[in-house]
Amino acid sequence: MGQSHRLSPPTPAQDCQELTDVERAIETVINQFHCYAVKGQKEYLTPNELRELVVQKLPHLGKVKCVGPLDEKIECMGDPDEAKLEFGEYWDMMGDAAKGCRRK
Amino acid sequence: MGQSHRLSPPTPAQDCQELTDVERAIETVINQFHCYAVKGQKEYLTPNELRELVVQKLPHLGKVKCVGPLDEKIECMGDPDEAKLEFGEYWDMMGDAAKGCRRK
User: Fold this and answer.
1) Per the database record, which ranges form the S100/CaBP-9k-type calcium binding subdomain domain (chains A, B) (predicted)?
2) Nearest Cα to Cα of residue B69 among B45, B93, B92, B49
3) Which CATH code for domain A21-101?
4) What is the pLDDT of residues A51-103, one digit of tens each?
5) From A62, which residue of chain B is nearest by alpha-carbon distance?
6) A60 closest CB neighbour out of B7, B28, B59
7) Which site among A6, A17, A35, B34 is 20 to 30 Å from B58 CA-CA?
8) Which of B9, B60, B87 sits opposite A9 (nearest CB)?
């Protein structure tokens, strides 16, 4: 797996408090993309890599019915080892899963 | 602020292990929307509510230059107290901030 990535607080120096819980959460979602996007060297995920991420890291979210499980979406991505999913599309997919499991 | 929301693992019962770090991260991002979407009763955020979220919860991410700071995007949303940002648009904005601070 690729190494993880640290969100570095931007300058100026005094802005150096710790990341908030939400920033750490976003960092965690970014890191998963980097960890699993090995073939694409952090530029893209293949369907196989994304499926591995979903199975290992989204055992519950990945099965949310009301949105249509993620593996159906992965099926439509094309060649399991050649198709390329960039970060933006990955983020959108995570959003679909998030929308699916939002309960009021 | 609205109360938070728990991602409940879907049935069947044996699928009851704890959420993974990524699922908890996604849950955290969802919860912020619910916490700040008071006027819209968790259905939408107003620009003012989103600005408050960004200032309080994204002190670093919100200032990421390369994407264009979030407050510029909030400016374009319309009436600060009347315009409505639904969950999908909120998730997209968090994705913009995430894209902006991804470092290879």
Assistant:
1) 22-63
2) B93
3) 1.10.238.10
4) 999 999 998 887 665 556 677 888 889 999 999 999 999 999 999 888 877 75
5) B23
6) B7
7) A35
8) B60
